[in-house]
Target: YceI family protein
Amino acid sequence: MKNIFCLVALFIGLTAFVDLKPVDAEKSVTFSINNFGLATRGEFKGLKGAIKWVPENPATSYFNVTIDANSINTDNDMRDSHLRKEEYFDVGKYPNITFTSSGITGSNGQYSATGNLTIKNKTKNITIPFTVDQTSNGYQFNATFSINRRDYGVGGGSMVMSDIVKVTLKVNALP
Model:
């Protein structure tokens, strides 16, 4: 009887979290930055990685995801080619942008993930506020946050481009 109880407890413990894979859907990772005073919008593709989500205990959850820097798309091929060069994302040398969480806090659908964002081999500790909703077959994670492009050596010394980039995430994650 004791062994059966232990097996049931182990099964419950193992199913209390969900290992997820992000789905690289349209508009999963978008950004906006002012350039010459006008909002320039774009997106990245190639989202992949691992997400562990424990709704009952978010502190035991994590995000370990990457995006393909070469996939940048602003609906302007000439600008996109320029953004792939050394002064901006230097995709030949740094093909991925990564985020690895070190802690998650919050409750009732309102959370924050603290972790390391790495762009062009420059890593900064950031906090991303996010919401999460359960879907019919997984979870939807939504976030909006800002970063300073100069912290990551993106855009060189451009004086016509804002330093602040607004990033929006709409990530579907499935088991």
Q: What stands out?
A: Helices lie at 2-15, 77-83. Strands lie at 18-23, 29-35, 38-53, 62-73, 96-107, 110-119, 122-134, 139-148, 164-174. The longest helix spans residues 2-15. DSSP finds two helices and nine strands in the chain.
